[in-house]
Every structure is written in structure tokens, then in C-alpha cells.
Amino acid sequence: MADTVTVTKGALQPLKARRPWVDAGMIQRTRGAPRTGSAVRLVAPSGEFVAWGLWAGDRRFPIRLVTWDPEAVLDGSYFRAAALASARRRARLPLQPPTDASRLVFGESDGLPGLVVDRYGDFAVMKRDTRCLDDYLTAMAEALLGELDLSGIVLRDEAGATVLAGAEPPEEVTIREGDLRFRVDLRGGQKTGWFCDQRENRQRVARYAPDADVLDVFCYTGGFAVAALSAGAKSVHMVDSSAEALEAARGNLELNGPNANWPMDQSDAFDRLRSLAEEDRCFDLIILDPPKLQPSHGDASKAEGAYLSLQGLAMKLLRPGGRLATFSCSGAMTRGRFDGVVARAAGDRSCRILERLGQPADHPILLSHPKSEYLTGLVAELG
Ligand SMILES: C[S@@+](CC[C@H](N)C(=O)[O-])C[C@H]1O[C@@H](n2cnc3c(N)ncnc32)[C@H](O)[C@@H]1O
Hints:
With 383 residues, the protein is an alpha/beta fold. The protein has nine helices and 20 strands. It has helices spanning 12-16, 76-91, 137-148, 199-206, 223-230, 243-256, 269-278, 300-315, 335-346, and strands at 3-7, 21-22, 27-31, 39-43, 49-55, 63-67, 101-106, 115-120, 123-128, 152-157, 160-166, 173-177, 180-184, 213-217, 235-240, 264-266, 283-288, 318-328, 351-357, 376-382. A seven-stranded mixed sheet has the order 16-15-14-17-18-20-19, sandwiched between helices. It has a six-stranded mixed sheet with strand order 2-6-5-4-1-3. A five-stranded mixed sheet has the order 7-8-9-10-11. Strand 15 (235-240), helix 6 and strand 16 (264-266) form a beta-alpha-beta unit. S-adenosylmethionine (SAM) binds next to helix 5.
């Protein structure tokens, strides 16, 4: 029999409204001794059924909810079906530009807590931020492999890359985004190997690139720079702290165009932005796509300060009329706060927002889980 958790009266409204995370403070009583991954039946103080979830063992959020269907049975066939349903929803999305690199499963937004699955051509990579689905990962991988006719699926975690179904991926897989090609290291690259959440933004930002001198800061393996060059940029200059990322970026430049010989600096972005200003360098288009600079909790004002200083350093390098394409992947940095940071950095320069940017449809935002909205960005024109 499943363990039963009684939640407080105050928790009923948000949980019935499909909030997928149960706070420790929402729990009134736990019957049984759930272990990580155990199915738990959530009930109201009256005994009325609320939802089914999985025990995650996390101190702040001990339970992740999965379904509000009282008849559901959380077992291998449930999770196989959920993974397939997620992949089938993706098959109906009009992803632009056409691509073979996309997110098949996006955690809570797809009813699979903490799990992401990214497809890269004939292979896929799984990652998770909780162990609560571990009993079902292989079943889900096998189901996806069969459904999508994939060659292999690996799980990435601190133990490295483990094949869950099918064959081991090659050292690099070449994916396409529209007319562009990129090599992705599924086993050693950052996150799952590639940032498919920036697919549409790379194309949108590239529209500002014709005849522009472009600075791609936090360039990783060159996604924005390659798109900018293919759209007619006059030059690109790339900055990243990772030597492996820059080596891969060079390879991606070679793969997509005749001239791969653009400057790349392996450096801390903040330091390099300062030294570029000392060298009196100027650009027409600057892209800032940093890693998460603001933790979900902790010292918010310090982290906001990092975003502020980054925007300010970049703006100093923009020619009058230049464009800044700037992003935050910190969920805590809401659109309004990000606007405020950019406005403060602009100071007495006029700053017009030309476009607002966000995450694509294969990273859907679950309205009852605001944390699923994490990528915010904008293109601003500086006077
Ligand atoms: C979100 S990824 C960028 C993704 C990239 N724009 C793309 O479209 O594929 C962030 C990048 O910042 C780099 N990075 C992290 N900290 C850095 C720092 N202090 N200075 C420079 N680069 C840094 C990482 O190596 C990573 O490549």
C-alpha cells in the first residue's frame, strides 16, 4: 500500500490548483516511511484525495506531485506512457528553425519531476535534479528509444554518462538548426551538451548581425556567433572561460563557413569586457548569455549586482545605436527585474527594447509552476 501524506488545510488550494512541489511546511502528517522514489498519496485533513506524488527526500520540497487522477498507479507503465506522451506533444510543435535537437521532456511541465531529456539527432541525453524517478529511468529510455527510433540514450550525472538504452553515442553528434550545423559532445559537454533553449533566439538575434561587428560573450560552442556570421556579420569576437567550449566553437565555425579564423578569448567575461574597454574596442552587437548568476535563494541583491555590472560593462563597448542581446537563465530574475537591471545599467543613455526573448515551445512554462519559466532576454538599442 502507498504511503499516505496528509497536507494542511492551507495547502489545499495551491495543491489542487496543480502546484507540483509540496513544501515541508505543507505536510501535516506522514503515514509510513517513504524512501526516495516511493509513491505517496496526498490527502486533505478530511481524508479526501488530493494528488499522487513521489517522495523526493528533499528537505525543503519533500514531495513532487505527478498526477491529480485518483485512479492513477505510479509504476513503470505509468512513467513509460508519460514519457511517450511528452515526446508526442513535441512531435506536434512547429519548431523553428527546423532542427533535430530539441527538448523531449521538460520536468514538471511534462509531469515528470526534475527530469529533462534532450534529443540530438539519433541520440538523447537524460539529466535529473532529483532521484525520485530513478526506478523508472530505464523504462522511459527504452520507451523513447522505440518510439523515436533512436540509436541510444544516456544518463548524465556526477558518475559520468551511462547508457540507459541502445548504443553508446559517438564522441560527437552533429545536429542542425535550420541551415546551420553544430557538433555536440553528449557525454562531456555542458548541461546535456547543447543549449537548445536558445535556438529561436540565435536566429532572432542574428537578424541584427548584417554588417555588424559582433561580440559573443559566454559563447560556449559558438551558437550565436555562427548564426551571426551566417546572417552577414562583418566580424565576430568570442569570449568564454572554457577552453573546451572554445575549441568546439572553432570546430563549429569551420563546419559552417569559409572563415573560421575569428578571435576567441579564453577569459573571465567580466575581466575581458573591462580590458576590451581599455583597448578602446567597440561593437555594433553584443550578446550576453551568462550561466545562472542568481541562485534561487540566497543573496539576491549580490547576484542582481553581477547582472548589473555585466550589462554596464557591455554597454560601454557598444557604438551609439548599437544593440545588446542580453539573457538571464536565473528563474529568480523575472522580466520586470531584468528590465530594471538593464535600465539602471543604461543610466543616462536612451535604451529601447526592440524585442523580448524567452524560452521556446519545447521548454513549456507550466503556469502552476512559475519556476519552469527561467529564460528571459531582450534586444535593446542603446543611444
Ligand atoms: C548559458 S552558456 C552559453 C550558451 C551559448 N550562448 C550558446 O548559445 O550555446 C554559458 C557559458 O558561459 C561560460 N562561462 C561561465 N562562467 C564564465 C565566466 N565567468 N566568464 C566567461 N565565461 C563563462 C560557460 O563556459 C558557458 O559556455
